[in-house]
Specification:
Elements lengths: L9 H12 L5 H8 L3 H13 L19 E9 L7 H7 L4 E6 L6 E7 L2 H10 L7 E8 L17
Helix pairs in contact: 2-3
């Protein structure tokens, strides 16, 4: 894996913080807040996108609105050797799987899934996970209540 160096100044970090809080914020509003020209903000945002600091823009959707009430984490033990991610790529292709993490420890992967209910979870395990060659075992944790679920990164301004 190629190591990428990111050189972000204080203004870049402020732009990232504002965009992370509101992906719909426009360049003029950012420029006004930072006391800069909108064209300068646009240029910086384009550079942040090109350097892959900004990867994409998303709307955060309430899972209950889509009847995805059950949140679960599943530890998956596989036959994969370290660094091999063929099963990880298959897991990533399952629609109910929100995250796939290649982890250290007895298990090879940790996945985060959302389903309608426990029946949906059973269906996912029976119809998808059990059909993936190389999965040895799974261990599932069902979330009773979420105290904090955040996808935003903590951004600290450089002084």
């Amino acid at each position: 894996m190629k190591k990428i160096e990111y050189s972000l100044d204080r203004i870049d970090l402020q732009i990232l913080k504002m965009m992370q809080e509101n992906a719909r914020i426009n360049n003029a509003d950012i420029a006004r807040e930072l006391g800069m020209a909108p064209s300068a903000i646009l240029e910086r945002v384009k550079k942040l996108e090109k350097k892959e600091v900004i990867l994409s823009y998303h709307a955060k959707i309430n899972p209950l609105a889509l009847d995805q009430k059950l949140l679960s984490f599943i530890f998956i033990k596989t036959k994969d050797i370290i660094g091999e991610q063929s099963i990880g790529r298959i897991l990533a292709g399952i629609p109910q799987v929100l995250e796939v993490h290649d982890i250290v420890g007895d298990d090879g992967y940790l996945i985060k899934v959302r389903t309608q209910d426990s029946i949906g979870l059973v269906d996912l395990m029976r119809d998808s996970l059990s059909k993936i060659e190389g999965i040895i075992s799974t261990r599932t944790i069902i979330v009773l209540q979420t105290v904090k679920e955040e996808s935003s990164l903590h951004i600290v301004d450089k002084k």
